[in-house]
Amino acid sequence: MPRITYIEPSGNQTEIDLPEGWSLMQGATSNGVEGIEAECGGSCACATCHCYVESHADRLPAPSETELSMLDHVAAERRPNSRLSCQLKASADLDGMVVRLPICQS
Amino acid sequence: MTAPIIIVGAGQAGLQAAESLRSEGYAGSLTMIGDEPHTPYHRPPLSKAYLLGEFTAAQLAIRTPEALAKKGIDLRTGITVSAIDRATKRLRLTNGDELDYAHLCLATGARPRPLPLAGADLDGVFPLRTLADTQAIAARLPSASHVVVIGGGFIGLEFAAVARKLGKAVVVLEAAPRLMPRAVTPMMSDFFRDLHIAHGVQVELGASVCALLGEQGKIAAVHTGDGREFPADLVLVGIGILPNAELAQQAGLECQHGIIVDACSRTSDPAIVAAGDCTARRLADGNLLRLESVQNAVEQGKSAAAALLGKERPFTANPWFWSDQYDIKLQMVGLAAGCDRTVVRGDLAARKFSAFHYRGRTLIAVDSINSPEDHMPARKLLDLGLSPAADELADLSRPVNALISR
Predict the structure, then answer these.
(1) What is the set of domains in chain A, with CATH numbers?
(2) Which of A48, B7, B259, B330 has the fewest C-beta atoms under 10 angstroms from its C-beta?
């Protein structure tokens, strides 16, 4: 299982082994990682699972048009490495990936 | 030892109340009681991604049991509360146990409105509310070929879209003259009727179901009042939900189609708050508002936790909601009831537009189809109380975002 490191807003780091096919949002929320709300449960409707991709960015599929539109309206600062974690699916390629969670989601 | 705060209900609202109590600094004992055997899970994907096989049950979990334990939330599942004794501050459980509470949060949710007809209990007739309901439907779907959906609301239409994607013949029977009559404007009703027809669904409006017919205990057909028969080997009943308010009502709390709460989720008993689908919120004008949505569960859960800690955190945000059907994403904000003018931005035929609803000159609601770039700023417009002129919103060369920051 790919291992993902989440950096919470407090700076606390949590490593989680994610089953392939799970979204990075699901891995974070189900394990109680702080810093993600994910109100819509992963259907790209609320923009509250914003994350900053700190590594492995080149191995991610490009964001969909919907995700890009939602990223325009995240609560925290949007950066070039901003993504919605519900749209990022764990795969072997992403083993060792690091994502940072923003200071706020809504 | 002081008695705990007890949360009755382990859905989205109950979980939010529990976690907000912790994040707001409550360090005492905290128990959450759920009647389903699961940890809190996301319900919205049940009628969409889960039935399509895109999510597993494990992926629906909002938190693992370990994550809850780490926060000091004592989750007890598969347990039903049978009575609240407010005088002694004690809960009675159906297994005979009793639990003392210091404060109570009722997040008991809702249940599907039953179809009051003979045959509603035939094999092959399903509600869609819980994970167990959905697993029963998923087990039956592969062998089904004729699906009849009773009720053209969100659940029924999302399920119809799933069943069509899986290649089933699908009929939607809606008693009202239009789809989703309580939730959307006639224009959106027509849009979704056309969408489902284009995907091969037979949409029957004004169709009141009068009988469900079975053969050897299995559903075989649905009859409507105008004498028509629709063959069926799977029937989905989606005719609304009933708030689980009986526990509160029997305890003497003020209830009316839900447990009545104020904007801060307080009930008529200072020791008890309530949140989510089980509530009816008293508005400033005295009217009651029932919302059935994730946002309502989350916002009221936060308000309920604050109230238990002696703080006021009123739920004042505009209601928002979404639905996924086929390749269509519907996002809604505000309440369109009472609108007298609608301005369309975008292209209905291209299935990419937003409908801005006005009452007089005041923007009261916005529905968007595949237009998150308009919808997210539209939410901000409503929350800021801004009402741009109609011609400004209709002008596609001007981003909605630009109307906020002026």
Answers:
(1) 3-100 (3.10.20.30)
(2) A48
